[in-house]
Design goal:
The structure holds two protein chains of two kinds. Chain A contains nine helices and 16 strands. Chain A is an alpha/beta fold. In chain A, helix 2 packs parallel to helix 9 and helix 5 runs parallel beside helix 6. Chain A is globular. In chain B, helix 3 packs across helix 5 and helix 10 runs parallel beside helix 19. The termini of chain B are far apart. Chain B is of the alpha/beta class. Classes of the chains: A alpha/beta, B alpha/beta. The interface between A and B is large, with 42 and 40 residues. The structure holds flavin-adenine dinucleotide (2 copies), iron/sulfur cluster and FE2/S2 (inorganic) cluster. One flavin-adenine dinucleotide binds next to strand 4, strand 5, helix 2, helix 3 and helix 9 of chain A.
């Protein structure tokens, strides 16, 4: 049992932050790595990135968005409850080095994944522009943490309710037009990552993205998480999750992510039905 | 006397009716009754130099345990069996007996061999259901700590053997439950999980500790295990890297590796969806590419998931099919068709990226290749397509580099398997042994256990004498 030590609802309760006791994992985890967890005996295995870790306290922080049955079930867990299984750290850590100027652009819960990477890139001596975007003000998360992690951080919303009125990619483009950027890290929903890559491509700037492929084991054993990168099949769990965005077949990823849409809906309906019967 | 006994025919195993079982996950063979077991055991002529035991990779005293069954002394029978085999209920179900013990039984020369596998299964089941499972008495603790990485049959064997020698054993497993392929690969209808858990539970009660969710090489390295105070390590991580065909369309939704398909179904119980949360594509027209045990398991699972048609697509002929004869027979009885001398060349999908069609090429057999089997050669222009909404690729597995890649001190061979001394399992890294599929490539349960037995003996020497 991996105990939940704290729970905080961010962004209108659709995004939840959990601090969980997992000493072995906390000691080893690096930015960019994830865990695979299972809520209970009948649960499925889902991957979540570690938004933070505290090796001294032996804790990891997960920030998840409620999108389906498993994450909805997770939201019902409170401090003192626990997750049945958490395995990790999995995936390759982000390669952190001093390259010069970096833009870290995050959308939605992707910001949680982006945060430790942003912090590490700044610590490595880079000039880091942070860009955090969401549909509206209430859905923005971790503004303060990202401000602290980057040299300069800008917020933006689609509806203009907070910060810049428009897409983060507009801000990205402004920076690219203005100065030399050595690396862009874009993490968020698949359409957003695809968009970021199409913006950076003409500038020929290396662009890292984090692929949220569907996973089972997370150790390269099943091949479920395969994605086409540079025309070749890669396993997101062991070869990634970060890849050169200009090489990724995002359309294939988008389709694969919808592979179980019907069953996911069925699962969710059953769950909501059970909840409302209680 | 011998002739007298030979007159008793080999006793049939009652089985679930194929028409019924093809739609359920309950075990297929139903097991012997005590009477049938005694009768079958009485067929054994108790050879002075028994071929059966020689054919057994762990050298079970087969006439010894069979004799006890024949006289109805089941308790003594299971005790004898367990001297050599810690997982008899598993082996009695999945071992390729026809090519091992039974293949070497003298009665098989003229008629039918003693049904050693069925007797093994009977006696192990009897012990479990009668609640007679006895715990061995342990020697005084040796004060030595052993780490076992991977909880498949090889790791479990080492854990049991070294625990019985008084060492303090911890098994590290990447998944959330121990068992290896026995758990996530072999389906319930061939190896009920309760039986596996009960054998693992026996080890736990003996004192073996299990640390699940522990991906060694990621959360802890072998060096760190030594720093934590382990004196010796056994690596038995299996051969868990799925091979694909490398043909167009292989990333369409509905194309699975056998590992994924079986893991979702067995470990995650996707066949009980939505009671269990893990989804699985339920194909109507299914193809399974490959013809080993893994392919048979995948095909039979797809049938049980409600498929209309399931086809085994294999590029060679029936003779070269690597699966056990019994499994092929079971599959055919359940309505699975064999499409031999056929090779998929392309998968086609719809606008949503879902598999709809497979294109295949007909093959013929040419000259023998390095493996001694006749090489399949494509017949030019002989293409055809079949509607298919689920394809399971089951063409083998290789060495997963996750652990070995993070352990430079371990020497690997060209194909990425760990180099270990055949007699002892010693690797090139001091204090580290390896065995099972990660050394040999995909083999069998009992071979993985045999490697474990040898390594455990060598590790015990090391722990008590030195490297
Ligand atoms: C490496 C990695 C890191 C991730 N990190 C985060 C994170 O930090 N925060 C966060 O909110 N989300 C993260 N995700 C996505 C998260 O795993 C999914 O949102 C979650 O699995 C949804 O499960 P569900 O049952 O609630 O929803 P479902 O109803 O099952 O599915 C909703 C959608 O989630 C995706 N999904 C479903 N099952 C899986 C699965 N087993 N693996 C991956 N995606 C799946 C699919 O796109 C699906 O359409 C990450 C994914 C990956 C691969
Ligand atoms: C579907 C299927 C059907 C089969 N049918 C038969 C049959 O009928 N008869 C037969 O004799 N053989 C059969 N086999 C082959 C047999 O199962 C294997 O030869 C045997 O299981 C190998 O045992 P092992 O202990 O070496 O490894 P495995 O059983 O593969 O176990 C390895 C374990 O190590 C774990 N692991 C891997 N990496 C790590 C890590 N880094 N850290 C911690 N843990 C890790 C894995 O999760 C796994 O649990 C079958 C195989 C499959 C896949
Ligand atoms: S070879 Fe056959 S008959 Fe002889 S001892 Fe073994 S099982 Fe009995
Ligand atoms: S999740 Fe199984 S190989 Fe990546």
């Amino acid at each position: 049992m991996y105990k939940i030590l704290s729970k905080r609802e961010l962004a209108q309760g659709t995004v939840v932050e959990n601090v969980i006791s997992a000493p072995r994992i906390a000691k080893k985890a690096k930015p960019g790595q994830f865990v695979i967890l299972r809520v209970n005996e009948t649960g499925e295995r889902i991957p979540l990135t570690m938004a933070d870790t505290d090796p001294e306290k032996g804790t990891i922080t997960l920030i998840y968005q409620v999108v389906g049955k498993t994450t909805a079930l997770m939201k019902t867990l409170n401090v003192g409850d626990g997750y049945q299984d958490i395995a990790g750290p999995l995936g390759k850590p982000t390669h952190i080095e001093k390259v010069g100027t970096v833009v870290c652009i995050g959308g939605g819960t992707g910001i949680a994944v982006l945060h430790p990477i942003t912090r590490a890139l700044k610590q490595a001596g880079n000039k880091v522009y942070g860009i955090c975007g969401a549909r509206t003000k209430d859905l923005l998360i971790m503004e303060d943490a990202m401000a602290a992690a980057s040299t300069e951080c800008t917020l933006c919303t689609d509806d203009g309710s907070c910060g810049y009125h428009g897409f983060g990619t507009d801000l990205l483009k402004q920076i690219l037009d203005r100065e030399k950027v050595d690396l862009v890290v874009g993490i968020g929903p698949v359409p957003m990552m695809k968009f970021v890559c199409s913006v950076t491509l003409p500038y020929n700037v290396r662009t890292l993205v984090s692929l949220n492929a569907i996973m089972v084991d997370g150790t390269g054993m099943c091949g479920c998480c395969r994605a086409t990168v540079g025309g070749k099949t890669a396993f997101a769990c062991v070869d990634g999750p970060e890849f050169d965005g200009h090489q990724v077949d995002f359309d294939e990823l988008t389709k694969r992510l919808r592979g179980y849409a019907d069953m996911e809906r069925q699962s969710m309906e059953l769950f909501e039905h059970k909840c409302s019967c209680k | 006397m011998a002739e007298e006994k030979a007159k008793v025919p080999r006793q049939k195993m009652p089985e679930q009716d194929p028409a019924v079982r093809r739609r359920n996950f309950k075990e297929v063979p139903l097991g012997y009754s005590p009477e049938t077991a005694k009768l079958e055991a009485s067929r054994c002529i108790q050879c002075k130099t028994p071929g059966c035991s020689k054919g057994c990779p762990v050298g079970i005293d087969i006439p010894g345990f069979v004799k006890e069954i024949a006289v109805g002394n089941f308790e003594a029978g299971i005790a004898k069996l367990k001297e050599q085999n810690a997982l008899p209920a598993v082996c009695g179900r999945v071992c390729p007996q026809e090519s091992q013990c039974e293949g070497n039984c003298i009665l098989g020369k003229k008629g039918e061999p003693v049904a050693i596998g069925r007797l093994e299964r009977f006696i192990a089941d009897w012990e479990r259901t009668e609640g007679k499972m006895k715990l061995a008495t342990l020697p005084a603790p040796s004060g030595k700590k052993v780490a076992v990485v991977g909880s498949g049959p090889s790791g479990l064997t080492v854990a049991g053997d070294l625990c019985l020698k008084g060492h303090d054993v911890t098994v590290f497993e990447a998944f959330h439950k121990p068992g290896g392929v026995l758990l996530y690969g072999i389906p319930e209808f061939r190896l009920p999980k309760d039986i596996l858990f009960s054998e693992i539970n026996g080890l736990e009660r003996l004192g073996v500790k299990f640390e699940v969710n522990a991906v060694v090489g990621k959360v802890v390295s072998l060096e760190e295990l030594f720093e934590e105070g382990f004196d010796a390590i056994y690596v038995a991580v299996g051969a868990g890297l799925p091979y694909f065909l490398g043909v167009p369309g292989e990333n369409l939704i509905g194309v699975y590796s056998a590992n994924e398909y079986l893991t979702r179904s067995n470990l995650m119980k996707a066949y009980l969806f939505p009671e269990y949360d893990t989804p699985l594509v339920r194909g109507k027209n299914v193809i399974v590419v490959g013809a080993g045990n893994v392919a048979m398991d995948s095909a039979r699972t797809a049938m049980r998931m409600g498929a209309d048609t399931v086809k085994i697509v294999y590029r060679r002929s029936r003779e070269e099919m690597p699966a056990r004869a019994e499994e092929i027979h079971h599959a055919e009885e359940e309505g699975i068709e064999l499409f031999l001398l056929t090779n998929p060349v392309r998968f086609l999908g719809d606008a949503d990226g879902r598999l709809t069609t497979v294109e295949c090429q007909k093959m013929e057999l040419g000259e023998a290749d390095a493996s001694g089997r006749r090489r399949p050669v494509p017949i030019e222009g002989a293409f055809f397509t079949m509607p298919t909404d689920l394809a399971v690729i089951s063409v083998g597995a290789g060495a997963n580099p996750l652990l070995t890649g993070s352990t430079p001190a371990l020497s690997l061979n060209k194909r990425g398997y760990i180099v270990a001394q055949p007699e002892t399992g010693k690797t090139t890294m001091k204090g580290v042994w390896a065995g099972g599929d990660i050394v040999t490539g995909m083999a069998t349960v009992i071979q993985a256990m045999g490697a474990g037995k040898q390594a455990a003996a060598s590790m015990h020497d090391y722990l008590t004498i030195g490297w």
